[in-house]
Design brief:
85% of the residues lie in helices and 3% in strands. The protein has helices at residues 2-5, 9-15, 19-45, 49-65, 71-84, 88-123, and strands at residues 6-7, 67-68. Strands 1-2 form a two-stranded antiparallel ribbon.
């Protein structure tokens, strides 16, 4: 399941296998997604298309590093719709999809981060 949901290949390539790097990047990703998805939900509720565009853009980059299935593409679509100032229903559907995907991936990512933290403890 996690192999289908999360692709660590780019993170592995960037980190060169270094547990500290993976631990840090996964922490940043989780923090960014938690806050960013909360903000995006608020922007959608308030019909603030400019803020929707900006928030989706900000979430697109980390989702290109920690590749959770489909998230990067969804943020790209939401960003485009925000820029066009249209498609609120589609934005809401895409947001529900990305939120569901993230909730499924979050415990797996947290486990991977904890695994890398344990590797750090062994290095000390």
């Amino acid at each position: 399941m996690s192999e289908d949901l999360i692709d660590y290949s780019f993170l592995e390539e960037l980190s060169g296998g270094a547990p500290q790097y993976k631990y840090d990047i996964l922490g940043i990703f989780l923090d960014t997604m938690n806050e960013g998805l909360h903000n995006l939900a608020n922007h959608i509720t308030s019909d603030d298309f400019e803020a929707i565009e900006k928030q989706a853009h900000a979430l697109k980059s980390p989702s290109g590093i920690v590749k959770v299935k489909g998230m990067h593409e969804i943020f790209q679509k939401i960003e485009h719709l925000g820029r066009e100032r249209t498609g609120k229903e589609e934005i809401m559907q895409l947001f529900a999809e990305v939120q569901s995907t993230y909730q499924a991936a979050k415990p797996i990512l947290e486990e991977e981060r904890a695994k890398n933290e344990k590797l750090l403890d062994k290095e000390e």
